[in-house]
Design a protein that fits this description.
elongated, alpha+beta
């Protein structure tokens, strides 16, 4: 693992755990390099890496400032609620709507349902540390799990699916990007046209049954998908 990446990972961990507070200034390159026992070029590359990831920003006349750390989510078959809870990011859910009705054509095809099958359609806003992070639309067949607003505000969707005996085991996921609409910007506290990450996921349980179809929008300034690649 490159030395600059090790140094950047150490600084990133300190930012995420509040050792280096948001809004504070980072020491200059010389002081940091001396304290961490690395060369100035290595330190400069580590800082540039964190600037690219949106955790540091260089301001003229101010120096290198620590900004709000992004939620980094590994691309795995997990729920956002569980991922935030594991990293102590205080997840909170606002359920905007919950309706039961016949599945639309796209959901019927994605989940392999019979036409007219009843599903629960949900729209939620997910918060991390009381800051809006994502708008989440999900559809779950009613005979997979009976969902309530109270349950969804207290638990993640995948925890409720597991409790109902339908643990997601495999999924197809497509990640993309878009500009925020006026409604999305208002709900997420961002500017209209701000960059957003999108994710569409279809999940199946171990029996091969389709249990969840989701379409989510995330603030790109506060959220990133993370992949580890090997060969």
């Amino acid at each position: 693992m490159p030395l600059y990446y090790q140094v950047a990972s150490r600084l990133q961990e300190q930012i995420e755990h509040g050792v280096l507070p948001v809004g504070g200034r980072l020491e200059n390159e010389v002081e940091l390099a001396d304290r961490l026992g690395v060369s100035r070029p290595t330190m400069r590359k580590a800082i540039a890496y964190l600037v690219e990831r949106g955790m540091l920003v260089r301001r003229r006349g101010v120096g290198t400032q620590i900004v709000h750390p992004k939620v980094r989510r590994p691309v795995e078959l997990t729920s956002l609620y569980d991922d935030l809870a594991k990293t102590a990011r205080a997840p909170r859910t606002e359920v905007r709507s919950l309706e039961v009705g016949p599945a639309g054509d796209a959901v019927v095809e994605a989940l392999g349902l019979a036409p007219g099958s009843e599903v629960t359609s949900i729209e939620r806003i997910r918060y991390a540390d009381d800051e809006p992070l994502a708008i989440m639309h999900n559809v779950v067949p009613v005979d997979v799990a009976r969902l309530t607003v109270d349950d969804l505000e207290r638990h993640g969707l995948y925890a409720l699916l597991r409790a109902a005996g339908h643990t997601p085991r495999i999924a197809n996921q497509v990640v993309g990007a878009k500009a925020a609409t006026a409604v999305e910007a208002r709900l997420l506290g961002d500017a209209r046209g701000a960059p957003m990450l999108t994710m569409v996921r279809t999940a199946w349980d171990e029996s091969g049954r389709g249990v969840e179809y989701g379409s989510h929008v995330y603030r790109a300034s506060r959220y990133a998908f993370e992949l580890t690649l090997t060969c």
